[in-house]
Design a protein that fits this description.
Elements (H helix, E strand, L loop, with lengths): L18 E4 L5 E6 L5 H9 L3 H8 L8 H8 L6 E8 L2 E11 L12 E8 L8 H15 L4 E6 L4 H8 L5 E6 L2 E7 L4 H23 L3 E5 L8 H12 L4 E5 L9 E2 L2 E4 L11 E4 L6 H11 L3 E4 L9 H16 L3 E3 L5 E4 L6 E4 L7 E8 L2 H12 L11 E6 L8 H9 L6 E6 L5 H14 L2 E5 L17 H10 L3 E3 L2 H13 L7 E6 L2 H13 L3 E2 L3 E2 L6 H13 L5 E6 L10 H14 L5 E5 L3 H7 L39 E2 L43 E2 L2 H21 L13 H12 L5 E2 L2 H9 L8 E3 L3 H11 L3 E5 L13 E5 L2 H15 L2 H4 L1 E5 L4 E11 L3 E8 L2 H4 L4 E5 L4 H10 L17 H17 L3 E12 L3 E3 L2 E5 L17
Parallel strand pairs: 5-6, 9-10, 9-13, 10-12, 13-14, 14-15, 18-19, 18-20, 20-21, 21-22, 23-24, 23-25, 23-26, 25-28, 26-27, 27-29
Antiparallel strand pairs: 1-2, 2-3, 3-4, 4-5, 6-8, 7-8, 11-12, 16-17, 16-19, 30-40, 31-34, 32-33, 32-34, 35-36, 35-38, 36-37, 38-39, 38-40
Length: 983
């Protein structure tokens, strides 16, 4: 960290403005304040700027900076004059500064809220999005210092800079005078500016991952001179996979005259390689990694895969070693996978990259796979790669990333890549921790709307090396919140693979109605029971009997798929013996051909001891969804029957329908659609960039147990329902009476008192009032006389409450007296409480005006390390405290979220007229939830809010108690300018 040395600098060096950013081309740069120590860097930077760029900056020829210029551009007070620089390798590549100005355009101080802003970018780095990133950061700095508007004067010929301002998405005013374009824009974020920022973030982070997964050249550093060892193994894996780019083996211990290792060019240093190196796989001990990183950075390597252990997972010293590694790599604009990583894989024909410790390249396919754990990564690759053996068959992988300690590249980065990757249809992730939960849920919502995202998340503490705090929410609550963001949340690796195979191979179901058919009545009934347990709506199983032929299966499946009362089909199959027994290949072809006749519905198979059937159903072919995989209800295909269409259910174990078998003289199967048949020309909605239709072979997943098949189908049903709802998302309402700026000023003043605090009653009421939330006044009553005075001030009738911690919100203990109509009743109630619970100094009694009768509820908001900002709702008292009957929604809460939140608790009927009681004002309750959500979303310093009790009456709501806790905003959230995790 640098510190200013000039006495005119009025503020300490703002280290929290330092940030690493990903640029448009996927490289990284560091943004930091300019200080007096940067004079030489500034002069060197300016010398490398073209005369044209200098002219655009100063509106005149300006070949060099004078000493006065250098002093001006390096001396800032970090309030009225601020300069930021983007650096790579410690050297400036771009600068931006603002100067606060008054109404007359001259220098000014606060409360003036306008500033003039100017940029200068080295010509070699123009077009990389540096100016756009700097604009985001200088705007955030300006808002922090009370500046609300920027002005910039630009020459008309400087079209690149004009475009930077115009494309930023802020509310702007443009004028032309004296040959200069003047741009003025408010710095208050808008929906458009936020959308622009996030679109740029996605493109930049996706490209940074793409540079790692599709390199043109790879150097393996640490290749042993003899067979064996990590480096030599990775080199062999790359070579055996058929990597299409240039491959290099590096070891400083190689003899000078060694030219090749296993047919790969050998070098003693990366510096000796003739030509660029895009990716370096670092397989040297941790103590030698810094030297390797320096060599790679100086050679222009774009990214590193660090396999070495001995970092944060090994303790405090390793944690500091890991931080130093990230800082060093980012100095050169490199991104890191690892350390302690298993490696990365890309099966695309044009790449064929296996830069991992996996000895065998997985089959190409449409599943993207991410695992923080190397051991779990091995298990996932093995399960997806394995043939037959009673498993669900085989499928392929598009790309695989095992991030290890994920010191830099994380699951969020890889999600950005997979979002619009045309080679990936389904994303499977094993997450031991979530470093930036707000960002993850935002990306999950967007990704889930385009393609399925299936996640297993560890329920315990984050593993060593992962700099995140453990969640305070129950595991089931975190799971429910992730599901709200579109995540298909499963509990085990087996369920992850089961769901992934179904989603990769089959279309989404239009609803929960399931048909079951097969040659085993008992297996059909077992499947029926599991469907009921998973919340599906199964029809009576259709028993084909054990004598069923392949033709019988084909005819039954064709007929069932054509039935509009069915959304999905589960086929059960057991082995048969004797004359005319159906063979595995014959049955597989019968099912596949029938499914291809009606491609819009998913088909699953539950088989018993039919390993050959599983393998036959998994015949080679593309795992992309068929033309029928159009998400239900989207354009481009037949509309599914409405969800409300009912299906007669019958008894828990209904008598199975029976279909006459064809026997030996049955008719022959109709001609099957052959593998590779042309799909219908219907675009799949699962990628935001719709690919052209491709030939495919529909693959039917086969499961060795009914519960596995049905659980996977249930997840697909819930995801399809979420995707339909996400197509018409709710809105976050705007309220004219919200004073966001006033709340920010109040919060800033309160936080000057300390790092984290629960603010007082008066401050709480003032803050909530800024968001249109009124809290009923509660006046302290330390004596009976004070209670009487308070009641007179408030007006009768009143309530007398004990607020001691052991009595607060415990009306059941008798610490509350209601409907006190006059002074006599109030004094009597005061004496009763004192006799029951002790003197007033222990009771802490307060007097509050009576609120209209209604249902007592509780509203909470909290910032959780694993889930982000969460709003919770339940009924006050035993329902929420004893039974845990609380519902939760992620912030920001939309109007649809608020409506469903109120109705999600088990005790919700009490709000809607249960047993003849009067319904209460749930629209007013929903508005309160939305206002609390806005408060937490707008101000990350608000880390906890509790409103209890909230009395919901027939008309309106009354907030009788409130607490708010504040803390400094996190160094990294999802609300400010784009940044990478800080180290």
């Amino acid at each position: 960290m640098q510190t200013p040395a000039d006495p005119q600098d009025r503020h300490e060096y703002p280290s929290h403005w330092e940030a690493d950013v990903v640029l448009r081309d996927g490289g990284t740069a560091r943004v930091r304040p300019i200080t007096v120590d940067d004079a030489e860097r500034l002069v060197s930077f300016y010398e490398q700027v073209s005369d044209e760029s200098k002219y655009y900056r100063f509106f005149a020829p300006y070949p060099r900076l004078s000493a006065k210029d250098v002093h001006r551009f390096t001396h800032h007070d970090f309030v009225d004059r601020v300069g930021l620089a983007a650096t790579i390798g410690g050297e400036f590549i771009a600068t931006v500064r603002y100067d606060r100005i008054g109404p007359d355009g001259t220098s000014a101080s606060a409360p003036a809220d306008e500033a003039e802003v100017a940029f200068l970018v080295q010509d070699a780095h123009q077009g990389r999005g540096v100016a756009s990133a700097l604009l985001e950061h200088i705007a955030a700095v300006a808002r922090e210092r009370g500046i609300r508007r920027f002005a910039a004067e630009v020459l008309p010929a400087n079209t690149k800079m004009i475009k930077v301002f115009m494309d930023a998405g802020y509310t702007q005013k443009r004028s032309f005078e004296d040959g200069v374009v003047r741009l003025e824009f408010d710095l208050e974020p808008t929906d458009r500016s936020l959308a622009v920022q996030r679109a740029r973030e996605q493109r930049a982070e996706a490209r940074s991952v793409r540079r790692l997964l599709a390199p043109g050249s790879v150097a393996v550093i640490g290749v042993g001179r003899t067979p064996g060892g990590v480096g030599r193994s990775v080199l062999g894996n790359l070579r055996d996979a058929g990597f299409t780019g240039r491959l290099h083996a590096v070891n400083r211990a190689f003899p000078v005259d060694l030219k090749e290792v296993d047919g790969v060019p050998a070098h003693r240093s990366v510096r000796d390689i003739d030509g660029p190196v895009d990716l370096a796989v670092v397989a040297v001990p941790a103590e030698h990694v810094p030297e390797v990183v320096t060599e790679c950075g100086e050679h222009g390597v774009q990214g590193l895969v660090v396999l070495a252990a001995g970092y944060a997972e090994s303790g405090p010293d390793g944690r500091e070693r890991q931080r130093a590694l990230v800082r060093q790599a980012r100095t050169y604009g490199m991104r890191i996978i690892g350390p302690n990583a298993f490696g990365i894989i890309n099966t695309a024909d044009g790449v064929r990259l296996n830069a991992s410790l996996a000895p065998e390249m997985p089959r190409p396919g449409r599943i993207g796979l991410f695992a923080q754990s190397g051991a779990i990564g091995i298990a996932l690759l093995s399960r997806l790669h394995r043939r037959g053996g009673g498993v669900t068959g085989t499928t392929g992988v598009s790309t695989f990333v095992s991030s290890g300690n994920r010191a830099d590249v994380s699951g969020n980065d890889v999600l950005q890549y997979w979002y619009d990757d045309p080679e990936t249809d389904v994303v499977l992730m094993y997450l031991e921790s979530i470093g930036n939960p707000r960002k993850f849920t935002r990306l999950a919502r967007r990704t889930g709307a385009a393609k399925p995202l299936v996640v297993v998340q560890g329920a315990g503490q984050a593993p060593p090396g992962h700099a995140v705090r453990a969640t305070r929410l129950p595991h089931a609550t975190v799971s429910a919140l992730l599901r709200q963001a579109g995540v298909i949340r499963v509990d085990t690796i087996t369920e992850l693979v089961d769901a992934g195979l179904l989603l990769a191979r089959q279309p989404l179901p239009a609803g929960p109605r399931v048909a079951i058919l097969g040659n085993s009545e008992s297996l059909g009934l077992l499947t029926y029971d599991r469907c009921l347990a998973e919340g599906l709506r199964p029809a009576r199983p259709l028993d084909l009997t054990t004598r069923a032929s392949a033709a019988d299966f084909h005819r039954a499946l064709s007929r069932t798929l054509a039935d509009e009362s069915c959304d999905a089909v589960v086929v059960t199959a057991i082995p048969t013996i004797g004359e005319g027994a159906v063979g595995d290949a014959e049955l597989a072809e019968a099912l596949r051909s029938a499914a291809e006749e009606v491609p819009g519905k998913p088909v699953l198979v539950v088989h018993v001891e039919l390993g050959g059937l599983a393998e036959a159903l998994s015949a080679a072919g593309r795992t992309a969804p068929s033309a029928g995989a159009m998400a239900p209800g989207t354009d481009g295909g037949a509309h599914p029957p409405p969800l409300s269409a009912s299906l007669e259910r019958g008894d828990p174990h209904p008598p199975a329908e029976r279909l006459p078998t064809a026997g030996a003289g049955s008719e022959r199967l109709p001609t099957a659609v052959t593998a590779g048949a042309e799909a219908q020309s219907v675009a799949s909605p699962r990628s935001p960039r719709t690919p052209a239709p491709q030939p495919y072979s529909r693959l039917i997943p086969a499961y060795p147990a009914a519960e596995r098949a049905v659980r996977a189908l249930a997840e697909a049903v819930k995801y399809a329902q979420w995707q339909r709802e996400a197509a018409e998302p709710g809105k976050v309402p705007e309220y004219d009476d919200i004073d966001e700026r006033g709340a920010a000023e109040l919060i800033g003043g309160l936080l000057e008192r300390g790092e984290g605090l629960t603010i007082g009653v008066e401050e709480t009421c003032r803050l909530l009032r800024r968001y249109g939330i009124d809290v009923h006044r509660a006046l302290p009553a330390p004596t009976p006389g004070a209670a009487v005075d308070a009641a007179r001030a408030l007006g009768y009738p009143v309530a007398l409450k004990a607020t001691a911690p052991h009595l607060r919100h415990r009306a059941d203990l008798g610490g509350v007296r209601l409907d006190l109509a006059d002074e006599e009743q109030l004094r009597r109630a005061y004496d009763e409480l004192s006799e029951l619970f002790g003197p007033p100094e222990e009771l802490r009694p307060v007097v509050q005006r009576m609120a209209p009768r209604g249902v007592d509820t509780v509203v909470r908001a909290v910032i959780d390390p694993a889930a982000g900002a969460v709003v919770s709702f339940g009924l006050a008292g035993a329902a929420s405290q004893l039974l845990g009957d609380m519902a939760h929604r992620l912030v920001p809460v939309t109007d649809r979220d608020a409506t469903s939140l109120v109705r999600s608790i088990r005790t919700a009927p009490l709000l809607f007229g249960w047993r003849g009681s009067a319904p209460v004002d749930t629209p007013a309750l929903e508005e309160l939830l939305l206002r609390v959500s806005r408060l937490v979303d707008d101000h990350p310093e608000v880390v906890a809010v509790t409103l209890e009790p909230v009395v919901v009456a027939r008309q309106g709501v009354s907030v009788l108690g409130a607490t708010v806790r504040l803390a400094p905003p996190p160094a990294r959230d999802d609300l400010g300018p784009r940044t990478l995790p800080a180290y």
